[in-house]
Write a structure and sequence with these properties.
Layout lengths: L7 E7 L4 H15 L6 H17 L4 E9 L2 E7 L11 H8 L4 E7 L2 E9 L1
Length: about 120
């Protein structure tokens, strides 16, 4: 994944039951470092949902990416499980209900990618 002209951070996590909590800690800490403190709960809820879905895909690891621009944050989780069928869109309703102003999912040769944008 390539992000240009904005701040970004990324983490590689084991695909394990504890990964959503660790991912939340990383995202909220990074948002605080960038000066955003108003959206902690939305960031936590969306990060948990994204990473939980990526872990459920059954890969060995999960990549988590975060970027900000114009007081919005993009949170992306990649499952790294090749050979998945067409993207499962069931997660989109959950992401929207958790406060995502935009979200999506797709499947590529390196696994399923799911993303959400939140206002900061």
């Amino acid at each position: 994944m390539l992000v240009r002209n904005r701040r970004s951070a990324n983490w590689s996590l084991e695909a394990a039951a504890w990964s959503p909590k660790k991912a939340c800690t990383n995202v909220v800490r990074q948002l605080h470092d960038w000066g955003y403190r108003e959206a902690d709960q939305a960031a936590e809820n969306l990060t948990k949902a994204l990473v939980r879905a990526a872990v459920a895909d059954g890969g060995r690891r999960v990549s988590l990416h975060l970027a900000d621009q114009n007081r919005q944050a993009l949170i992306v989780a990649l499952s790294h499980r090749p050979g998945l069928a067409v993207a499962d869109t069931a997660v989109l309703a959950e992401l929207t209900s958790l406060g995502a102003v935009s979200c999506g999912t797709d499947t590529a040769e390196d696994g399923r990618r799911m993303w959400a944008v939140i206002d900061l």
